[in-house]
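S.,

Sequence below, as promised.
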Amino acid sequence: MKRREPLGLDLTPIIDVVFILLLFFMVTSVFKKDELALILDLPNANAKEMKVDEEQVFIELNKNKLAIKGIEVSFESLEDNLKAIENKQKAVIVRIDKKVEYERVIKVLDLLQKYDLTNLALITNQDKEKK
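The prediction came back faster than expected:
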């Protein structure tokens, strides 16, 4: 009678599959960028930094486009989104490209005022030059 050796599992294929899955999810995942949808050239200012919360509403505005919470919308959709906000004390963060026409800025500010969203912050770049 022959003695049998206990059979062990070969873990090499399992490890290969795990590494392939890990690489797949790392490559295909989208890294969150603060719900920003538009590339903006912000004006400079000497204002102090502000902490950003998840509960804040982000509005972005450039020459041709408008976005809220990282999604491009029209002014009508923006109005619907602002109307749906129940907490009127919620902070509204507005990022405006420095080349945007003043009329478009006023349009956004009017909508915010219409729905009593007065907790407003305008985002700028930190001014590098100290005068």
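The helical segments are 12-28, 75-83, 102-114.

Coffee later?
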